[in-house]
């Protein structure tokens, strides 16, 4: 995430579902990228603006989820950025504008711990506002204390994945 993509446009003057498919796809991609930029910047307002107020972020068992509400989601990611040096990349993104859903493959770098975690997230978007209503996170493997959590035997380098954290850490407001 070296370049900051254009943030989503202002609220749509018509229901999101009434936009042409290419516009919905572009909006969804820009919204997810803006959310990840906000995570990397520890910018609560930027993150929260991408979510429906009642959005829910689900996690695998044992990770204190789900997180409910746009601000709660944003504040929790800010906390992790500032305490464990979290930084994220979007490695793959596919959007389905007809279903108002998208899926991404990501890497979550935990720079203070010198580790990372790879996984996927499924996104649902509100058909009226185009905001994220739900994220369901799936990890590459159970988090069992290893520093590097990724699929065994998958050649990340050959597929063009980031192999080290591209985001400057620690964050200027870090608490470590």
Short description:
By secondary structure, the protein is of the alpha/beta class.
Describe this structure in words.
This protein is of the alpha/beta class. The chain is 23% helix and 30% strand. It contains three helices and seven strands, in the order H-H-E-E-H-E-E-E-E-E. The chain has helices spanning 21-41, 44-48, 70-84, and strands spanning 51-58, 67-68, 86-96, 101-110, 115-125, 132-139, 148-149. Strands 1, 2, 3, 4, 5, 6 and 7 form a seven-stranded mixed beta sheet that branches. A hairpin with a 4-residue loop joins strand 3 and strand 4 (101-110). The longest helix has 21 residues, at 21-41. The chain is globular. It starts with 20 loop residues before the first helix and ends in a 27-residue tail after the last strand. Residues 1-6 have low confidence and may be disordered.
SSE diagram, text form:
Elements: H1 21-41, H2 44-48, E1 51-58, E2 67-68, H3 70-84, E3 86-96, E4 101-110, E5 115-125, E6 132-139, E7 148-149
Parallel strand pairs: 1-6, 5-7
Antiparallel strand pairs: 1-2, 3-4, 4-5, 5-6
**How widely separated are the two ends?**
23 Å
Unreliable residue stretches:
1-6
The chain-level structural class is: alpha/beta
Number of helices: 3
Kindly estimate the percentage of residues that lie in beta strands according to DSSP.
Answer: 25-35%
Major sheet: 7 strands, mixed
Assembly state? single chain
Task: Categorize the overall geometry.
Answer: globular
Q: Tally of extended strands?
A: 7
The overall pLDDT average reads 88
Q: What portion of residues is helical?
A: 10-25%
SSE series: HHEEHEEEEE
């Amino acid at each position: 995430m070296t370049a900051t993509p254009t943030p989503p446009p202002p609220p749509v003057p018509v229901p999101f579902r009434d936009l042409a498919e290419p516009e919905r796809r572009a909006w969804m991609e820009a919204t997810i990228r803006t959310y990840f930029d906000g995570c990397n910047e520890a910018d609560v307002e930027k993150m929260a603006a991408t979510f429906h107020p009642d959005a829910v972020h689900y996690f695998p068992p044992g990770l204190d989820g789900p997180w409910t509400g746009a601000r709660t989601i944003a504040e929790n990611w800010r906390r992790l950025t500032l305490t464990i040096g979290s930084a994220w990349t979007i490695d793959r993104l596919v959007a389905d504008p007809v279903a108002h859903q998208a899926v991404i493959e990501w890497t979550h770098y935990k720079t203070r711990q010198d580790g990372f975690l790879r996984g996927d997230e499924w996104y649902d978007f509100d058909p009226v506002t185009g905001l994220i209503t739900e994220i369901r996170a799936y990890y590459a493997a159970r988090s069992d204390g290893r520093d590097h959590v990724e699929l065994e035997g998958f050649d990340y380098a050959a597929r063009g994945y980031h192999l080290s954290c591209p985001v400057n850490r620690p964050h200027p407001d870090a608490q470590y």
